[in-house]
Hints:
This protein is of the alpha/beta class. The chain has helices spanning 11-17, 27-41, 54-57, 60-69, 92-120, 125-130, 161-168, 188-202, 218-227, 245-251, 264-267, 283-303, 312-325, 331-348, and strands at residues 23-24, 46-47, 140-145, 175-180, 210-213, 230-233, 255-259, 273-276. It has a six-stranded parallel β-sheet, with helices on both faces. It has a two-stranded parallel sheet with strand order 1-2.
Amino acid sequence: RSRQDDGKFDMGALAIRLSSITNGVSRRHGEVVTHDWSQLIGGPSEYVTNGVHTQTWTGRTIWRLFDKYVGEDWTDKLITPEAWEAVRDIPNKDLWDAHVGQKELLLRRIRGRIREQLARHGADPDHLRRIDDQLPAERLTIVFARRFATYKRAGLLFSDPGRIRHILTNADRPVQIIFSGKAHPADREGQGLIRWVVEMAKSHELGGHIFFLEDYDMQLGRWLVGGADVWLNNPRPPMEASGTSGMKSAINGGLNLSVLDGWWEEAYDGTNGWGFGDVHQSDPDAAATLYHLLESEVVPLFYDRDEDGVPQGWVEMMKNAIVGVTPQFSTHRMVAEYAEKAYLPLGRR
């Protein structure tokens, strides 16, 4: 029966009844599972936070820095968090140059993808040629790439059109946002959000600052997490069970700007990105907080450069993200934790 005990068949209830151990996929999700299902579980839920396969999602230039500073055996050190303190020894300019290299590769590939999709939609040659002058690498680049489920609030950033236009088109500190993702075939609202973003990208006011990439897949995902300056995630809490794309970005030095839900509620420490929002915050209030963070912290920090063009404060935050996220949110840690919390106890029984 369902958790409401109304006599309806419920797959979640079936899974719990047939399982020896029930767990959430983040600490926050474990709390939600406990709240919703404790009467079937017989007590609080366990949780094992998701992780990502680090080798798959690490860009080539960042990989080489890991080889040099963490050691060529860094893949064996993913369950040794203290080993990752060596990342702090990387000269800031070297880490910044590695990030910019991956970002330039991302933007070059994206220009090609955009030309292909515009040509497919019948764009004229002049329009296609203009793509070469868009997506400059020196511009702050924010990425929002994931399923276009409605709870992920892809449109939150556009709650105040005038304010977001001012942020994106500032002549001295411009911002560009890359969107990508798919909606379920039955999710009409999610499909509507995609159409809305595409129309915004075509608008006179925001054209050249907003881009939507079709056919989101693993290859495109690797490019995006490898080169994003900021990884944006603003779901409506507590609906984000875990999330993993932000972990992949952080491995490469991308900074998460994320609602404090799912995995980020555990990872955020005030020095490795930005966190905002809670279950009591309305959508308009969450949007206002997001705008404030962009205007007062994210954009100024990115454009605060030294004489060599390196954003020293930004790079220090990148290091904090890599050190804090890479070992703690890897599949190495996740599998070891499943063994400790689930498999070995069941075996001993």
